[in-house]
Amino acid sequence: MERSIVHMDMDTFFVSCERRQHPELNGMPLIVGGTSDRAVVASCSVEARKYGVRAAMPMRYAKMLCPEAKVINMDMDLYSRCSQEVTEIIEGSAPVMERASIDEYYLDVSGMDKFIGCYKWTTELAQKVFKEMDLPISFGLSINKTVSKIATTEGKPQGKIQIEPRYVRPFLNPLSIRKIPGLGDEKYEDLARSGIRIIQSLAEMDVQILHKMYGKDGIKIWDKANGVDEAPVEPYKETKALSRSQTFDQDTIDIVKIKSLLSSMVEELSYKLRDDAWLTSVVAVKIKYANFDNKNKQKKIPYTSIDKTLKQIAEELFDRLYDRRMRIRLIGISFSGLVRSSYQINLFDDTVENIDLYCAIDKMRKRFGFKAVMTAQTMNWHDDKNK
Question: Is residue 200 part of a domain?
C-alpha cells in the first residue's frame, strides 16, 4: 500500500502565540527572541520578514533591518502550553502521530482514502486546530516525510498542499537543495561550489560520489533528492526527564572530584538535549550520603540547553544540598519540564559567539564522540576515573 504522510507545521508559532495572547500585536512587525543586542532572533512575523529579518539572525542586525519592529522576550511556558493543546487536538484525531518539535508534526494517514479522502481529512483537521486554537497552521501531504515537509515549507503561510506520487519529481526538481531536510549549511556550500544548486542536479549525480563525500549521509541526501524516504512516523511518546547518576566505588568527601563528575554529567545531558532538540525548565540534583540518607533539591529555570547555564544551576543546588561534612556515596542530576524545539540553541538570550561555539562543539562530538571535546573540569573527572 502506498503511504500517505502528512507534515503539519504551525506558522510563525512563537509570534502566533504572542498575538493570540495580545491581539494588539496583529499587523505590526514582530521579533521574538533575546532582547539584548548580542542575542539572536528565535522567530519573526511575516511583516518583519519583508525587511529581511530571519530566525537565528543576530538581534542587532535584525533591529537595523527593521527598526520599527517590536521585540519581545520569549515566553516558553506560553509556547509549551499552546503546543500541548495543539498536540492533544491532533493526537485525538490522527491514527499515528509523531511530534517532531514544539510546532511540527508528522501523521501517517495511509489507507484513509478508503473512508474519506486524505486531503479532505487533513484539511478538516487543520481547520479544527485553527478554529479551536486561533493559531495558523500549514500542511503538506505526500508519499513520505521528506516530500511532505518540503511541500509544507513551499505552501506557507496557511498552505495546504498535496503532492501526488506522479508529481513528486517535477515538484522537487526545480527547488534549491537548501530545501532538503537535514542537508546543513556545510554540505550546501560544498555542493553549491560544485555547481549543484537545485534538487534535480543532485538527484542526477552518481550516488557513489556522494557516498565518498559524505558516507551514509550522502546516500540519504541522494535518496531525498529523488523523493525517497522510508523513515516511519514514530508514535508520539512524551519524555518526562533526562537523568544521570553515579555511585562512587568508594564513598568520598573530595568536593573537587564530586563537582568534576557533576560537570561531566551536565555536559553529557546538555549535549543530549540539543542533539534531540529538547529544552529543559527544571534542574534537580540529588546526593546520597554514606549512611544512605538521600537529599535532593530542584530549581525552575527559563527553558535552556546551554551547558554553562545548567552547570551554574547544578553547582548552586549541590552547594545548598551538601550541608554536613560526611562522605557521599552517590550523586545524580536530572532535567525535566522538557519541551521539544527544533530551534535548539538559537532560542536563547545568548551571544552569537556562544551559539557558534556550541554548534562547533556539538558537530565535533557527533563526528568523533562525546569525549572529543570536554571542559577542563570535566576532563579532570575522566582523568581521575582512568587512573
Answer: yes
Give residues with Cβ within 8 angstroms of 86, minimum separation 6: 10, 129, 133, 135, 137
Q: Report yes or no: 200 and 61 within 8 Å, Cβ to Cβ.
A: no
| Pair (204, 255) in one structural domain | no
Structural domain span for residue 225:
173-234
Q: Please, which contacts does 64-67 make with residues 24 or more away whose CB atoms are closer than 8 Å? A: 66/29, 66/31
User: Which grid coordinates belong to 205?
Assistant: 549525480
One domain, residues 302 and 354: yes
The residue among 265, 353, 349, 346 whose CA lies nearest residue 310 is: 265
Identify which of 340, 363, 286, 361 has the alpha carbon closest to the alpha carbon of residue 9: 340
Q: Are 133 and 82 in contact (CB under 8 A)?
A: yes
Tally of residues, the chain: 387
Catalytic positions: 104
Of 266, 319, 322, which is closest to residue 293 (Cα–Cα)? 322
336: Cα within 13 Å, side-chain hemisphere: 10
For 344, the grid coordinates are 535548539
pLDDT of residue 347: 47
**CATH of residue 374:** 3.30.1490.100
At position 219, the amino acid (one-letter code) is: I
pLDDT computed for residue 377 by the predictor: 60
| Better-scored residue on pLDDT, 47 or 57 | 47
Same domain for 108 and 182, yes or no, is no
Same domain, 10 and 128: yes
Q: How many Cβ atoms from other residues are within 10 Å of residue 326's Cβ?
A: 14
Q: What is the pTM of this model?
A: 0.76
Express each pLDDT in 323-356 by its tens digit. 888 999 999 999 998 877 644 444 444 555 666 6
Q: Are 108 and 247 in the same domain?
A: no
The Cα angle at residue 101 between residues 95 and 102, in degrees rounded to 5 = 100
Percent of the chain at pLDDT above 90?
64
Radius of gyration over every alpha carbon of the chain, rounded to an integer in angstroms: 23
Q: Which residue has the cell 518539535?
A: 101
